[in-house]
Structures
1.
Amino acid sequence: MWKVLIVDDSFVDRKLLVEILKNKADCDIASSAKEAVEACNLAINDNKPYDVILLDVEMPDINGIEFLWSVRSI
């Protein structure tokens, strides 16, 4: 089973993706890029990094591109 992080500021979109992936992936969710960075750090520290990150590009605090740059530097 895949380990997936869903990053989206829309509650409805997060719920929909979790529902679609429920039989194929173990999903964690984050409602902001800041939460997602914390989740990625925790996953890496636990030696269980995410296989896939589904990311909304337009978010209020940090946009998806900036988030990608921060994750790639971990």
2.
Amino acid sequence: TWSQVSGIWPDFEDQQGDVSLTVTLKPYPQATARTKGPYTLSSGANRKHFLMQGRVAAFEFSGSAAPTLMRIGKPVLDVVPTGQQ
């Protein structure tokens, strides 16, 4: 079933500067990937809004600010099944 993702609540500890989020989506595991982003997750931001659809998603977080060690907790996503098969 396809799902719509409309946002993320990041959970970072010791975040210094912005973190970039890139999302890779596929309709099924062997399909060609579509890349969305990068989206900027600012320090102290509660939520980042975006809109995308897919069945399989991979999330990549990156950044270059110090300190290089930062805890990435359990990000919460806004995901709703769309009912498409």
